Amino acid sequence: MPNLADHYQQLPGTEGVPAPPLEEFEKLRQRRGYSYRPRTRHLFPEGWARYTNRLFLETSPYLLQHAHNPVNWFPWGEEAFELARQLDRPVLVSIGYATCHWCHVMEEQSFEDETIAEFLNRHYIAIKVDREERPDVDTVYMTAVHAMGLQGGWPLNVFVAPDRKPFYGGTYFPPNDYPGGLGFLSLLMRIRESYVAAPDRISRAGVQLTEAIRTMLAPTAGEESWREVSLDQAVRLYRDRFDDRHGGLVGAPKFPSSLPLPLLLRRYQTSGDRQLLAMAELTLQQMAAGGIYDQAGGGFHRYATDTAWQIPHFEKMLYDNALLTVTYLEGFQASGRTEFARVAREILRYLQRDMQAPEGGFYSATDADSLTPHGHREEGVFFTWTPEELIDALGEERGNLVALCYGVTRGGNFEGRSILHRDRSLAELAVELKLPEQELELMLADCREMLYRARAKRPLPLRDEKILASWNGLAVSAFARAGMVLENSELVQVAAKTAEFVLQNMMQEGRLRHSYQEGSARGEAFLDDYAFMVAGLIDLFEASHELRWLDRSLALCAAAVEQFEDRELGGFFMTGPHHEQLISREKPAYDGVIPSGNSVMVMNLLRLNTLTGDERLLEQADRALSAFATQLVQSPAALSGMLLAVDYQQQTPKEVVIVAPEGKPELAQPFLAVFRRVFLPNRVLVVICEGEEMRQAERLIPLVEGKVAQADRAVGYLCKNRSCQRPTSDPEEFYRQLREG
After folding, report:
1. Sequence-distant (≥ 6) Cβ neighbours of residue 63 within 8 angstroms
2. Is-contact 498 472, C-beta < 8 A?
3. What is each CA distance from 129 to 154, 158, 655, in whole angstroms?
4. Given this model, what pLDDT does residue 227 score?
5. What is the C-alpha separation between 166 and 172, in angstroms, rounded?
6. In angstroms, what is the C-alpha Rg of the chain?
């Protein structure tokens, strides 16, 4: 077995650059067993990697993917920037994540190229960053690229001075020159020449970009009031751009998040405008029928590259699937369409089967790429089929049936293979096949399970096994809400197990940590980590009726306010006092594929205020909304998640309390059954038993005071601002109250 010290010394172009602590390489190799075969084309005949850089000492799956590049990568940190100052070199900050397709492409084309690596090692300090570990670093330099007037994306490659100020950047760069553009090596040469010949110009560019970043990341409040915000203005924008054939917004690529369905459903619930419900229904139906949805295994891919949701980018993210679960549940409640409930169940089954760690947390993502039978990595090969493969897995009769129902043809619709999708409804297929619809549905469900098992024998896509507190908070919400809406206690138990995992393994010295890898938590938690976990714990309290989850949510919420609140202007910063101070501090507001930490945090404060009556929470929410009032008025579609908080306040949230006799929680079930039948987004729910449980609840939830059961029957209370309608022990009367408000 070659010595790792030899590996490092063979990195091209590293003369004069201090070596890392090579004894640490050896210790880590012993601990890991070094039994894996590195993913690199530079191998000794015995199969060991020819090159090993500092990233071998990291735990991030993305950084470890680059640990055997010939590039002398450094992790983000003072060591790299201090060396850049000593050697007077520019710094390449290259940012990506483990399941990023174009990150893999650039690695293979450029960072595995020894000529490029030698030039990079000789004239630059190269830093690799996992954007999911350091979203603060990613945000700063992505904003720099936007400030240059360029489109962002990953991999993100930014050139910065030793003082960390950026002066140029972009995303994917091909290795060689092409008509109209420079290849990566030529770009490295050109930037090096400018850095040496015109340092003043580089410095001015860094100062200007840094100032632009600071302005963009923490915009100042204007004179507008958030109380003047009209959700209908944002809805009009979506209505005007709606794709009335395929759902979502017109054009491609198509992201599920580009049309905020929760906002449409709330406006439908308030206004009764059935066109908004129809827009949401069509979008949910078309997404679930398309190739963006994994028909065999459940769960959604990242986005569709076409207008009809058929051709996906095949990576799967935990956050997409957690958020879409909640959206399909709301679609089910608002429309009554049972197929939306089925999709929610299938997403959660996918997460449990393919993404859950044995300890209880959920992994982050799976890759778009996987290995072909010939050993080449290609996008989508794991998820696609030929007619022959269907017959091999299902037999001829069923194979032909699935090919007909899911559009599998000899020519295929993706590089000679077919992505499973449905062009016709189940009812239409049943008529054509002359089968009862229910029989066809059961047959196809059985076939999908057989395909899942057959597919599992293929080389699996890489799975990023980081466990992130923020995304696990989204998973807690998804499982808890599903358990409530679908009356499934096992799903609530999954939510509880996930919450327990985070709170037991990712809390240190009273503070939440951002990620968990290789058996230990690391990194200070960001605003998103706290905000999403608080939201998950509130949802878990409502689904489980256990006060401990409300208690923990209040404690985490208080910690988030303490660490992240802008006490002068309102709102919350992404980073707190325990984080590294970067060249700018973001106050996130944009609601993209994931809602911003501010949007979720404001909703947390409002929900907890409704439950507890604590006016400080309402004041903090009001200050935050005021901080973003100008953006809410001028660009409401950019803050679609925060609009949900505005709607919550404008509609006056309902307080739903169900009181059961002492020791008889089962008597609350008829009331919960009718509660599930109503789409009631702007509300809180408390289910409690008389006796000791009630006395404990009164400490946290004053709105339960004075509310009692009736002999051996539960009683339902519907209130607003602590003013209640007539209590009722009749579930159907309670249902009428909920419907009529």
Report:
1. 55, 73, 75, 128, 130
2. yes
3. 11, 11, 45
4. 86
5. 17
6. 27
Residue identified by tokens 């650059």 is 17
Work out whether the CA dihedral 81, 87, 88, 89 comes out positive or negative: negative
Cα distance between residue 560 and residue 603, in whole Å: 13
CA angle centred on 517, ends 300 and 375, rounded to 5°: 60
Three-state DSSP string of 376-415: CEEECHHHEECHHHHHHHHCHHHHHHHHHHCCCCCCCCEC
Measure the N-to-C terminal CA separation of the chain; round to a whole number of Å: 73
Q: Reply yes or no: is the peptide bond before residue 155 cis, omega within 30 of 0.
A: yes
Q: Which residues of the chain have pLDDT under 70?
A: 1-9, 22, 25-39, 42-48, 221-222, 373-375
pLDDT at 711 (0 to 100): 86
What is the pLDDT, as a whole number, of residue 375?
A: 67
- The number of beta carbons lying within 10 Å of the beta carbon of residue 220 is 8
Predicted local distance difference test score (pLDDT) of residue 609: 98
Q: Which residue do the tokens 């878990």 mark? A: 540
Q: Which pLDDT score is estimated for 8?
A: 55
Strand partners, 379: 369
Residue pointed to by tokens 């229904």? 281
- Most distant pair of Cα atoms in the chain: their distance: 88
Q: What are the C-alpha distances in Å from 79 to residues 19, 343, 669, 687?
A: 12, 48, 60, 54
Of 525, 515, 592, which is closest to residue 63 (Cα–Cα)? Answer: 515
Beta bridge partners of 516: 467, 521
What is the predicted pLDDT for the residue at 652? Answer: 92
Q: Are 611 and 697 in contact (CB under 8 A)?
A: no
The residue whose two tokens read 């009764």 is: 272
The answer to whether the predicted template modeling score (pTM) of the entire model surpasses 0.85 is yes
Contacts of 182 (CB under 8 A, 6+ apart): 173, 190
What is the per-residue pLDDT across 223-254, written as a single tens digit (0 to 9) for each? 778 888 889 889 999 999 999 999 999 999 99
Count of C-beta atoms within a 10 Å radius of residue 225: 13
> How far, in Å, CA of 408 to CA of 404, rounded?
7
List the one residue out of 448, 439, 438 whose CA is nearest residue 338: 438
In a 10 Å sphere around its CB, with 0-12 CB exposed, 13-18 middle and 19+ buried, how is residue 721 labelled?
exposed
Q: Are 95 and 156 in contact (CB under 8 A)?
A: yes
Name residues whose C-beta falls within 8 Å of residue 469's C-beta, 6 or more positions apart in sequence.
502, 506, 512, 513, 514, 515, 516, 525, 529, 532, 533
Residue 36: what pLDDT? 44
- Of 283, 365, 289, 293, the closest CA to residue 330 belongs to 283
| Residue 556: partners with Cβ closer than 8 Å, 6 or more residues away | 512, 530, 533, 534, 537
Q: Which residues contact 425 (CB under 8 A, 6 or more apart)?
A: none
